[in-house]
């Protein structure tokens, strides 16, 4: 709002022409210039630059793309070159740059000579069901004959749209792709790229027989910059080993075109733990939107169950759960954010136990049938969740935990 008020002030507080003594001609008023970011005389040249950038993306012409950047904006020029080289490693297609919603300009501070909202669209071929559109704010400098770009982001606009950067937006990346898995690494994680990629493939193959039908196509991030994980996780980043997340058509959209997952490299040491982590996150990727309406204990418990059932026999899993829950007593299962913020380790173990017990005593499909029931019926409150679980499996979640604890401890 500061920008729009400054603009109004510049229109109201025009300098007054003064008169010289003796009847001389009035002193000419100084030439007015447009407020920062609002010189509309540059609009045609700016839109032409946007078209040239789009064509460069479509043509794969790096030089033409970078020729639109002001070399005096050294940091931006450097990151644009890095971004191009990053995206060139991806199976990126469906590029488009179009003028966006100009209403956003009332919510940001001006910069440069002209600013315009620009929607950038791209799709990862073979991984995204549709193209993804990202709102940008282009900042131009120049005149009516030629403009150049000095920035494509705006902090205020990013905060408003909830922009979460992809690895190729923030650092130099290395890409490993084969067997339907595309994995992205940075300079600090690429030394382990081959084994990590192989482990993702192995994790995917291990869980597929235990899940509803799924394409098995996966995009995984393993980079040292964990700011995006911190933004998406309901727990602290230090306690978050990984996070699966939807990629929507544009910010604010409810329709996802893909689910991807990111891992925190701090938590990937050790082959056994890494395998469990990858299998867990890939369950979330495989289910995608299907469990959006499920209570947290079901989404996390099902992922924990499949992650362990794909690698360990039932007796071993029961004994491990009994040991982890040695002092636990029957209680209702946690739902919502409380699951992550009030004793999350205990909540994960209880959810795992409940789902493992249901799958062992009633068959794996009981979990997916329960997920489907929550998908069909909205259960917003803990009481609604209890009613639905009781209707589907004949137990409250407290009774379910009680039976599951006895089952685990009898192994």
| Low-confidence runs | 1-23
Mean pLDDT: 90
Main beta sheet, described? Answer: 5 strands, mixed
How much of the sequence lies in strands comes to 15-25%
Order of helices and strands: HHHHEEEEHHEEHEHEEHHHHHHHH
Question: Approximately how much helix is present in the residues?
Answer: 40-55%
Number of strands: 9
**Distance between the terminal alpha carbons, to the nearest Å?**
65 Å
* CATH-assigned fold name of the largest domain: Nuclear Transport Factor 2, Chain: A
What structural class results from the helix and strand content? alpha+beta
Shape: elongated
Overall domain count: 3
- What's the arrangement of strands in the largest beta sheet? 5-6-7-9-8
**The CATH architecture of the largest domain:** Roll
Radius of gyration, CA atoms, in whole angstroms: 27 Å
CATH class of the largest domain: Alpha Beta
Number of helices: 16
What does it look like?
- There is one protein chain.
- The chain is α+β, with helices and mostly antiparallel strands.
- It has three domains: 40-161, Roll (Nuclear Transport Factor 2, Chain: A); 171-289, Zincin-like (2-Layer Sandwich), CATH 3.30.2010.30; 293-411, no CATH class.
- Helix content is 44%, strand content 16%.
- It has 16 helices and nine strands.
- The strands form two sheets. It has a five-stranded mixed sheet.
- β8 and β9 (256-263) form a beta hairpin.
- α9 (271-287) crosses α10 and α13 (344-362) crosses α16.
- The chain starts with a helix and ends with a helix.
